[in-house]
TrEMBL record:
Transmembrane segments: none annotated. This is Anthranilate phosphoribosyltransferase. Keywords: DNA-binding, Glycosyltransferase, Nodulation, Transcription, Transcription regulation, Transferase. Belongs to the LysR transcriptional regulatory family. It comes from Pseudochrobactrum asaccharolyticum. Residues 1-45 form the HTH lysR-type domain. GO terms for molecular function: DNA binding; DNA-binding transcription factor activity; glycosyltransferase activity. It holds the Pfam family Glycos_trans_3N. PROSITE patterns: HTH_LYSR. The lineage of its organism: Bacteria, Pseudomonadati, Pseudomonadota, Alphaproteobacteria, Hyphomicrobiales. NCBIfam families: PRK09071.1. It comes from the Bacteria. Gene3D superfamilies: Nucleoside phosphorylase/phosphoribosyltransferase catalytic domain (3.40.1030.10), Transferase, Pyrimidine Nucleoside Phosphorylase, Chain C (1.20.970.10), Winged helix-like DNA-binding domain superfamily/Winged helix DNA-binding domain (1.10.10.10). Coiled coil: none annotated. SUPFAM superfamilies: Nucleoside phosphorylase/phosphoribosyltransferase catalytic domain, Nucleoside phosphorylase/phosphoribosyltransferase N-terminal domain, Winged helix' DNA-binding domain.
Amino acid sequence: MEGSVQKAAQQMSLSAPAMSRLLNQIREAFDDPILVRSGRRMIPSPKAENLRLRLRALANEAESLLTPEINTQSQPETGWQQPALLATPPLSLRAPLIGGQPTPQQLANQLAELSQNHDPVLRFSRFLGILGRGAGNSRPLTIEETEEAFSLILSGQVDPMQASAFLSLIHYRGTAAQELAGMIRAARNHYQLNTATTLQADLDWPAYLSPNSPRAPWFLQAANLLAQAGYKVAIHGSNGSGSNGGKIEQAACALDIPVTHNLSQANHSLTGHNITYLPLTGFAPALASMMALYPLFAARSPVGDVVHLLNPLQARASLLGVSRPAYRELHRDAARLMQEYVQPAHRQSNLPVQLNVLSGNRDVAEFYPFRVTTLLSLTGSDSADIIIKALQEPESLPRIGMDSFEYWQAIWQGTAIDPRLETVITATAALGLMTINPDLDFEHCHNKTREYWQQRNKA
């Protein structure tokens, strides 16, 4: 509960060294670290999380044994059994706080009794009860629990305040890999993305950009290089709303990349053009609506992590970009859990066999290769970290007389020359080629994509 050995010692009226000795004895007894450091806090290990509810039950039982029993007699029937004409408003749920809140054991029993036979709003409250009990009492949801909860949200069966509380509680505590995997499973089932298709993309390339980012989408030119080389590249994403909300669509049209409105159109586009851009609103409108809530909270939502791993066009490889280094492990761990939990009959058709995760300063894989970079890789269920050496950074040339979009177009058309940006484009394409062909190293792939770049306008 305290996240600190010293604070826990103060709660138990012990010295810090005495508490440290107790912790060491517990670790030895259970053969587990029990508490591990995360930043400035100590957080429970997975085994400690599993022990938590059993220990609380033991503590409640010990407390009840020491509490004198009070004999209570049932109240006699009075004949006044007519229910009120108006239902009690939801705020009456706060009433127990006035007369004394239920014990943890009573609350646990109440939550356990809420099964799938109950009203969806009541069923969903069980998950909020698990997430929102406070420090030392809450725990992450399991894959199955998260999948059920997020399915209720997507089907519109819960109160909007419940959905907001669910996303806020998970984000505030920090999304666990099994929670992210559960939400992805729910979304894929809700939008029928698990149905195997006759055509599979070679590369899934999620692109979820901040509408406030002023940077041009250089990754689209990298993806187009691979499409011109014969690979089928499926891009899906969004650019938020506002004045820059259509940036990806505008750039795609400038490169003759088809912008499609649904999964059927996207598959047709892959057949004829080897590349497509499918906005999130075209295949998952509810998720797009949740993503659009950012201005109301001014904070990330777990939905922003879910969309990266949807793989709507069943690509056999996926290249992700995440804006924070810590999120790389989260996405890879969630993808591994997805591989472990998926039905064997659909293992090859619905999930990427190869996943590479790049950390940058935007939520799309766009590689600036001028410093040493670690690429997190997942092949099936096997993880690896790939170290990519830094490339020499060419001089950045000033943009004169052109706005950002015009300069972006001029680089592709060859009417403007910028060696630094050309390196960004070819190195990004090299990561995509590495993801499709995991047996190839970065240097080999970069040599190939530089050839693609020189040949891009010769067709």
